[in-house]
Design goal:
Length: 193
């Protein structure tokens, strides 16, 4: 069985000589696409392809704070950011220090800071990422804790399944007995699927 058009050219042997496929070679509608001389596909319009995920590393963002933030003792405090290094899709809300999911899916997040001047035996220090729905109701959260620390860095990763317009922020808690300065915090993430 052959596919034939007005301008046809034989381009392959499908079953060892008995059946050939022929058609117009090119990149327009109803053409057969052929690899070029370097075995690469020519440029084609992929806008009508279906069933293809936006893939890994979509909706990427990265935010940092360039100065110090005072973190009070004994209360969880939302970490503030003043610089967007990357914001693919404009989904990081710098004014409110949170990433807002543009679509439902699984997202990976990472946060870290270099210095928090909280010290002393038994000092509780917790870095967390919290997932809220669009009505500001907490859906999930993850923290990592340290005690007996002095100018100690912390970092962590977390994966959340988020609905459209859900958001994630970073919060820090310390119980040194007085306010302490947070330095060089970063927060970044991306959509996995």
């Amino acid at each position: 069985m052959a596919i034939t058009t007005t301008h046809s050219r034989m381009i392959g042997d499908l079953d060892a000589g008995s059946t050939y496929l022929s058609g117009t070679i090119g990149t327009a509608a109803n053409n057969i696409v052929q690899l070029d001389g370097t075995a690469k596909l020519p440029a084609v319009d992929g806008s009508q392809l279906t069933g293809i995920s936006s893939g890994v590393f979509s909706d990427v963002f990265s935010a940092t704070n360039s100065g110090n933030q005072s973190i009070p003792s004994g209360a969880s405090t939302v970490v503030t950011f003043d610089t967007e290094n990357v914001d693919q899709g404009n989904n990081f809300d710098l004014a409110n220090n949170k990433f807002i999911a543009p679509s439902a899916g699984t997202y990976m997040f990472y946060t870290s800071y270099a210095v928090l001047h909280a010290s002393g035996t038994g000092t509780d220090q917790r870095l967390g990422m919290y997932h809220y729905n669009s009505s500001d109701v907490q859906q999930d959260g993850a923290t990592l804790s340290k005690t007996t620390v002095h100018e100690a860095a912390q970092n962590g990763m977390r994966c959340f399944f988020m609905a459209t317009n859900d958001y994630v922020n970073v919060q820090l808690y310390q119980a040194s007995g007085s306010a302490k300065d947070l330095e060089r915090c970063q927060f970044f993430g991306w959509k996995l699927a």
